[in-house]
UniProtKB/TrEMBL annotation:
<dbReference type="InterPro" id="IPR050446">
    <property type="entry name" value="FAD-oxidoreductase/Apoptosis"/>
</dbReference>
<dbReference type="InterPro" id="IPR023753">
    <property type="entry name" value="FAD/NAD-binding_dom"/>
</dbReference>
<keyword id="KW-0560">Oxidoreductase</keyword>
<dbReference type="Pfam" id="PF07992">
    <property type="entry name" value="Pyr_redox_2"/>
</dbReference>
<keyword id="KW-0274">FAD</keyword>
<dbReference type="InterPro" id="IPR036188">
    <property type="entry name" value="FAD/NAD-bd_sf"/>
</dbReference>
<feature type="domain" description="FAD/NAD(P)-binding">
    <location>
        <begin position="25"/>
        <end position="323"/>
    </location>
</feature>
<protein>
    <submittedName>
        <fullName>NAD(P)/FAD-dependent oxidoreductase</fullName>
    </submittedName>
</protein>
<dbReference type="InterPro" id="IPR016156">
    <property type="entry name" value="FAD/NAD-linked_Rdtase_dimer_sf"/>
</dbReference>
<dbReference type="Pfam" id="PF14759">
    <property type="entry name" value="Reductase_C"/>
</dbReference>
<feature type="domain" description="Reductase C-terminal">
    <location>
        <begin position="342"/>
        <end position="424"/>
    </location>
</feature>
<dbReference type="InterPro" id="IPR028202">
    <property type="entry name" value="Reductase_C"/>
</dbReference>
<keyword id="KW-0285">Flavoprotein</keyword>
Amino acid sequence: MTAERPEVEAAALPHEGANVQPAHTIVIVGAGQAGGWAAQTLRNEGFAGQIVLIGDEAHPPHERPPLSKAVLSGAAAPESTRLMKPEAFDALAVHWRPGVQVRRIDRAARQVLLSDGAVQPYDKLILCTGGRARRLAVPGADQVPLHTLRTLEDAQALAPALRPGRSVVVVGGGWIGLEVAATARQQGAEVVVVETQSRLCERTVPAEVSAYLLALHRAQGVRVLLGAGVRGFARAADDHLEVLLADGSALACDTIVLGVGLVPNDDLARAAGLACDGGVRVDAQCRTSDPHILAAGDVAVAPNPWAGRSLRLESWQNAQEQGMAAARSALGQAVDYQPLPWFWSDQYGMNLQIYGMPTPAHRVVQRGDPASGSFVLFYLAGDVVQAAVGANAARDLRFARRLIELRKPVDAERLADLGTPMAKL
């Protein structure tokens, strides 16, 4: 059963009494989670002007995390992913343009040119264009069906293949790949995960967390191949598919899923001459290099003091909160968006959460035993908690977040002691 989604802190919700600018037109490009929250926040802050919400998908603003879990397994209907009920969306009185793409941004004229030939002027433009699933440029990639998971249509196309008696190869041992593998295994399919790196989620978590994830999946019957490169894809004589590995071997299967990362949709911004670096560069006010254009969500590269560098945060938290921050910034409000990174994943009923940016240089303090199913790993610099990773430990992690944000020194022995309530630290 999928674990419940962690609750959003009340402080992240829209506030009243804002300094609202005179009515004008704000165009939001991208009608996903970031774009949907931007539109809602504009109205919550009292903006009475025109809001134009342009999305290349046909669906109203929705969340993507359930696509690899509840929606993919059939436990939840696609409509359950919507950010708001239809009547609440209608009450926003936005000019919604579904199934339409922005072809070009004319910065000088402050207008966008749409795929249907229309021209839409703007006073402020918020780019929430997100990203697309990365593909593999290897032989056979255009000769066999390769599933990715980014849209509702992707989930609906993949779901029928996840059933008993079917075999699935997931290429990529990152978060999407592992969540798809977990859902497929729980649906009764045989699953192999192929990861080119030496450990799972190598780019985002320390080695001890990778080891925990590896043990979790293998205990569920998933075959995990580490350090295994993919040299191509093919269709076998018996109409099975084959994943051709770099060592010369091949994996026969019924279905292939690619979970090899996200490509930010910054093409539109690049063509308009905005500063980009693996995404659209923004400041703490969500402003791009053009003062009339902002960006938020998976496409935005922002300075983050918790990481000590600029980065894109591909998370549910950031899509929502940066979309809200960009809306407020567009209204001329004072915004200083520098969030503590927070990520979560549900696999086999296990809820894993990460606060901050753990690194190999940190000292690790363990609270609880992973074998028990509930634990927290704290990452310290000196006696200050910098990050925390935990499984099925939502309460302790809420206190861990406070410790990180307060930068309060702690006693490592008390931190590790289950007999010492986290509230006392």
